[in-house]
Write a structure and sequence with these properties.
436 residues, alpha/beta, D-Maltodextrin-Binding Protein, domain 2, six-stranded mixed beta sheet, 13 strands, disordered N terminus
Length: 436
């Protein structure tokens, strides 16, 4: 669910720091909480950001901006679990922010439909520096109806296949390079008494990652693009059925063990099983590395490896495609009184100091020149692996529960969970999705 989505990102980013930001509103910002704060009005910009450990990067950004701008930014930090609801409630009212943090795609689609946001496409087209500042596939994920409504403002979060090298070495197993390798590993680890893949089925959204990659590999990124663009016939594509059948096969093979439906992620259940050698692999967002660094530091240092999701037999998708969370975005309210200042503020996401602050915070920036800065990352090798993976990806599919509207995202997650739990057959899953 979207609440879980917000919670997992907050936990993942918090792992890089000692503590979560505790105040709802930045001290001294001159604003109450989002229920009290209105748009910035003349001479000010009211900027909302998702509250977590990475917010300190935006705090420093605001300080730098305010030193050189006559229009002053008031930064409002909104608690993660309530962020989406507060945004939906505030937009269209006098309490709406001028600039706000979001996930692109479905998270802002309703605002675009109601003509509430500034179309940034002309700005990208006329500003050559802005246009070349970010990885194109990441900018594309901020589009709605083929127009740009978001400027990338945080780190990338691709989904990776993580491996416990201790378990692999004990079983004499090698890193999977194909789907056949992956299926063979299921049998290998079962014989060792180890669950092949940790899966937090109790939370639902971790199962989504499997479906996202499988559909991409079988049908290519264009299948989900059709669905995201409102073409429900996309669910009738043969790749959807093949994806659902493959999930059935994996479950029947015992790829996730017998009790995955009761395992959680938000309380570190799946990650602990993986770190303790009870599971050999874990398909999870890149935040899993920082999560393990925080909770299982010895494992993270000595036995945590990672790779990409393999191709599937007969698949049409590009092996370089990635799924996950390309990044987060700044969007501008069309009713913001200080439009020029708002544009200047969101462009600060491409400034050198901001990028350096992201790296220092453990993030992997989405700017096109970030690789040269990653030597200063806490784990340069891992950071560069992610960065090159995303930079070379022809397509970076946004997590479906953010790419789709709220009305579609909730039942999509429910249907996926039922598919994994055996409550829907592959055909019933396809039928259910066509009916959304």
């Amino acid at each position: 669910m979207r609440t879980n989505l917000s919670r997992r990102r907050g936990r993942a980013l918090a792992a890089f720091t000692a503590a979560i930001v505790t105040s709802t509103v930045l001290a001294g910002c001159g604003s109450g909480g989002p229920d009290e704060a209105g748009g910035g009005g003349e001479g000010t910009l009211d900027v909302w950001v998702y509250q977590d450990a990475s917010t300190k990067v935006q705090e420093e950004l605001v300080k730098r901006f305010n030193k050189q701008s006559d229009v002053k930014v008031k930064l409002t930090q909104v608690a993660g679990d309530s962020y989406q609801d507060k945004m939906r409630t505030a937009m269209g009212t006098p309490n709406a922010p001028d600039v706000f943090f979001n996930w692109g795609g479905g998270s802002i689609a309703n605002f675009v439909e109601k003509d509430m946001l500034v179309d940034l496409t002309p700005e990208f087209e006329k500003d050559a520096e802005l246009k070349k500042a970010f990885i194109p596939s990441v900018v594309d994920s901020g589009r709605v109806n083929d127009k740009i409504y978001g400027v990338p403002m945080r780190g990338m979060q691709p989904v990776l296949l993580f491996m416990n090298t201790d378990v692999f070495e004990k079983a004499g197993a090698e890193k999977p390079e194909s789907w056949e390798d992956l299926l063979a590993l299921v049998d290998t680890f079962k014989k060792e008494g180890v669950t092949p893949f940790a899966l937090a089925g109790a939370d639902g959204w971790p199962e989504l990652m499997w479906v996202e990659y499988l559909l991409d590999r079988f049908g290519g990124a264009e299948v989900f693009k059709r669905i995201q663009d409102g073409d429900s016939s996309g669910w009738e594509d043969p790749a959807v059925m093949k994806t659902a059948e493959t999930v059935e096969d994996l479950v029947d093979r015992g790829a996730f063990g017998k009790n995955f439906a009761s395992v959680n992620y938000t309380e570190d259940g799946a990650s602990t099983l993986f770190a303790k050698g009870k599971a050999a692999m874990h398909l999870m967002g890149s935040w899993e590395y920082s999560n393990q660094q925080a909770n299982q530091p010895e494992f993270a240092k000595e036995a945590l490896d990672y790779t990409t999701f393999p191709a599937v037999p007969g698949g049409k998708g590009d092996i370089k495609n990635v799924v996950g969370n390309p990044t987060n975005y700044w969007s501008i309210n069309k009713k913001a009184e200080e439009q020029e200042a708002a544009l200047e503020f969101v462009k600060f996401a491409a400034e050198d100091q901001y990028i350096e602050d992201l790296v220092a915070n453990g993030d992997v920036p989405t700017t096109s020149d970030a690789e040269s800065r990653l030597d200063k990352h806490a784990n340069p090798e891992y950071a560069k692996f992610q960065y090159n993976l995303v930079k070379e990806a022809p397509d970076f599919t946004l997590s479906w529960d953010q790419a789709l509207s709220a009305q579609q995202a909730e039942p999509t997650l429910t249907n996926i969970q039922k598919l994994f739990n055996g409550q829907l057959t592959a055909q019933q899953f396809v039928d259910a999705m066509k009916g959304l």
